[in-house]
Amino acid sequence: MKLKNIIYFKSLKNRLKIFLVCSSIIPIFLIGGLTLYKVYDLYQENLSQLIHNELNQMKENIEVIMETMINMSQQLVYDGQIGKKLYLYLDEEEGIEKVNMLKYLNEQIAIYELANPKIANITYFYIGDKNQLKKINSSLAKEALPLEQEQLSKQGEMVFYGPHQTASVASIYDVISLVRKVRVGGYQDVLIYIESGYKQMEEILENTLEDLDAIYLITSDNGQVIYRSSEEELKVLQDYASFSVEAQGGWKISILVPKVNYYKKLNALAFKYCIIIAISVIGSIGIACGIWQSIYKPFNQFNKELKDIDAGQVKEQLEMLHIEELDENLQCFNKMRENILNLIKYKEKEESEKTELQIKQLFYKINPHFIHNTLLSLRWYAESRNYQDIVCFISALNKLLMYNMEKDKETTIQQELDSVKAYITLQRIRYNIDFEMVLNVPEMVLKSTIPRFILQPLIENAIFYGEEEKSIIKLIVALQDSGKISIKVMNKGNPLDEEKIKKILTSSEDISRNGIGLQYVVRILKDKFGLETAFNVSRVDGEKNQVEIVIPYSRGELYVKDIGSRG
User: Which of 34, 236, 254, 459 has its CA 20 to 30 A from that of 335?
Assistant: First the structure.
């Protein structure tokens, strides 16, 4: 079973399935679930806030009406002219003067009512004999005060009632009223009665939460419920979500929402969000399928092209896959083939110019030699790994090829070091290499010019003479006291054959292994720097091979390119 699982995960197809599910669908479910949980809390908070806002708005509107009635009563009680006329009216015997005073009172009250639509039915009452209530001015109010059980709040001499039915004889609607004593001269039994305006309370108490079947309650300052928006019997209070706010004066307004409707509203809001999540998941699955088709199918074709190359069936022109990264690699293979053919022709053409030809031959033998070794590694890697990480390998191969195919013969130390890193990346696929690079020089020294492809043969030599199980290679760049640059490549492994190396370095014929290597390095360095260069091979600490080149510091005008940024 374990072996079967390993084989399953070796397949790129199966890995893509797992990665697409893990990177697209699962995150949406996780993020969607967590967001839904948070959104549900947010909806609950918003719904509660909506109800509280409704309560506060109703309370404020009622308080505005109550404040208006208080201000109006202040004017009617303490207004000098009205108070004087009222006193004279009460004190005057029946006659023309009494009628004129009453007319004045009616006119002033009508002006007040007309100027403020929030109040109506302003009426002066006089408590006569046998506690009988009598109207003084003309109004639509009945000769009766609100019942005691309708009392809302008492604030000093002012008593608020309601909501209750209007005292008007002309219509039926709910109002809030104010009753206040008026002290006029020696008369202690005069009252003023003020109601809220026509249907003002209906607008305030209009149920804006009908979809929740909410019930509005108004409770007096002594705890009695004096108003309820629904005539139906209340169920068990535990079945309602209760929200309330207390007003100035001790009275309170509350909203009861059946919990069934409350959570139904929340679930309906959450369901809408679930639909969004479902649409997102479907969209994510569609995108994942698109990624599957756009990646796996071209990769299969690319894999087939590689197998054809490995089998020696190199096409004259490889078919492009219309995927930038893969097409760039295929173009590199085409370029490799063309460069190999061009190098062969160039070698035949320039054979007559011996000294220059040997250097050019060595230089242009780099690409076929590198291609040969790299393709061997590609073949070994493909056979042992079943092409699973081939894209990473080819990417590194592409970077190094682009560097090696530059036409300029000179480069910088920094660019050479970058090419060495890319080369090590490729060779690590085949060999177990522990590579360390130590730069003991200022950054400006790394811009010093150097012939192209000087360091890679040294690294290749270190791999060849390294230990079989693990190659330990160290590259050190340092400045000598003389001001020259020292580049050392050290490795643990079998001792170098000094006689063979001496013969290679001194021979005029190309006898180095695979046709390139140390002989190429020495010839290029001498051609470039003459006597200012040095090439040393030694055994260090009895277990390390050391190859050192010494070159003068040369500040060129080459721009340091980043090999890692190439295609």
Answer: 459
